[in-house]
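Table S2 (text version). Query chain:
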Amino acid sequence: MNTPEHFEMAEEHAVFRPTGQVSLDQARQMMISAVAFAREQNIRKLLVVVSGLTGFAPPSIVWRYYFMQEVARASGGSVRVAMVARPEMIDPEKFGVTVAANAGLIADIFTSEEEALAWLQGIK
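Corresponding structure-token output:
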């Protein structure tokens, strides 16, 4: 698999920072590809910053469920994912984080990169 566009390595983690106007399905495909690439490259921690993506409304609860199931499968249980999104895109109850945990994925979502990175660096 080729390195996804907007994917870069940092010292102890990788960063995926896509930008642009896309559909929700395009955003989903980009994120799944980045997680799968991280797994293939044995990258254990991935910071996904999607706050630069526009063109779609906040996803439904059903969409969040299936999306996080896909992310969990793509991670193969070996990639920890910290996601950064605009506040209006985050479910107040963090439903997706619960779905991820139930599917065996260690993940969380934040509104700031600083918080996300601190969380990511704090997990084993």
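Notes on Table S2: The beta strands are 7-9, 14-16, 20-21, 45-49, 53-54, 80-84, 107-110. The chain has one domain: 7-122.
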